[in-house]
Amino acid sequence: MLKGLLLFLLLLPPAGAAWAGPGDDPARVLILANARLEASVELAEYYADRREIPRENILALPLPTEETLSGPDFVRSLWNPLLTRLAAEGWLSGRLRENPDPAGRKRFRAYGRNFRYLVLVKGVPLRIADHPEWTAGPGPLPEEFRTSRGSVDSELALLAAPESRLAGAIPNPAFGRVDLPLGLVQGVLPVSRLDGPSFAAARRLVDSALAGEREGLRGRAYVDLGGPHAAGDEWLEATADLLQGTDYDLSVDRGPGLIAGTDRFDAPALYFGWYSADLAGAWKELDPAVPPGAVAFAIHSFSASTLRSRDRGWVGPLVRRGVAATVGNVYEPYLEGSHRPQLFLRVLLEGGTLGRAALVSNRFLSWQTIVVGDPLYRPFARSLGEQVRALSPGLPFGAYVALSEMNRLAREEGAEAAADWGSAYFRRSPGRVIGLRTARLLRELGRAGEARRLLQPFTHPSYDPPDQVWLMEAIAGELAALGESVEAVRLLERLHGVRDLPPALREQLRDRIEAIRGGVGSGSPRPAALEPSR
Predict the structure, then answer these.
(1) In what order do the strands lie in the sheet with 58-61?
(2) pLDDT band at 23 (very low <50, low <70, confident <90, very high)
């Protein structure tokens, strides 16, 4: 049966063009809301209006309001009504079969579909509990895969498939096929959701994606290795390699544990890492300001076991903090059943949509994965050159665009060109991000006097939220390296008094002060596990 399903998925004639270009036609997005929750329907309408999706593309069904459904409830309340509606309204081309399958699911012989993505909004159930009667018996599946529990999203991805079991994972024919036209996998329905701890947070997913697409993804990139399985670290090494090929300022943590509150973690626009049960490390300790359009990818078995909590798991807390796109697992997928970060990022870097990236990077369907965010979102729709031309003083997160431009100049024209450009930008729009990068370059180029003058404004008191303290600590290190130890200590002492600092960061500042006073504190602070910024 499985072999026949895959053949069907690969050979089903496409409905319309395989791809409409780098993005997708909003008119071919369907939205599923819970008719029993007014806020769910309002969220669907908000998304439709903001993305110019016709409101007739909203399907509101009376669904249970719990996050977890039993298998029979899923079939009765969601699968059968949705399939019937899609067939009746012509979204699926083909015909309903007369007899249901052994689980009671209506079956559809599909010849094509007239939509590209299915978006579930908050209020649509999240996951399906194991139903022992459907559990796969002895056969080719390993014992741990013999379960019918899974994500609603992953089951609905096979809504138009002629035969699919509810127990066990089904290989995704699009997995790893980064150049595969979507029209060749018409039997797979790419599914994503707009969901989170609150309806306001779910709505912000829409606004954040649109802002990131319109203005460009501004910020830094972080890769956090050191998980429990070598294969996962290999995936993240490949992800880091891809990011090294961009002009984003990048930190890679290869030490054990998560990036900590003592490390640099400002403006996380791109984050890939693992491994803890709940959001932790710098994300929790520093609570950083998150740029619009940010993409975060945390590998963990139960990262999306609930989306209604502000603190449990990873997906819900990340959405609450303003991340625009993320993936997760509702139950244990095992490492091989998780999204691949390197494939996910590659599709995005090549200009692809979130929906396509999630599909290509997902090894299994009828399993545990979900993707949260607008499937039409293209984080890299706007080039660095376009962003640089739009720079203006005071532009939110604009300093990180300037930082990327300095990285580009250093790579293409050399450190002198990058330092000169940074100095000119700093005069127009002074700030610690560009100040630190430019002063370090100037010092390394032997232009110490220019570096001292550039850092002088930072010796005066100013408010510093916790996620900015590392930058100021690094500036103090540059001052010390330039022979300005008194100013460096004064700055560090002020930082030590900032409220709500993680205890370990406060202790690190105390150690830094003592090191400079002892005459051994030259150079910028650089946590041992982190590669230096480019």
Answers:
(1) 58-61, 29-34, 117-121, 191-194, 369-372, 326-329
(2) low
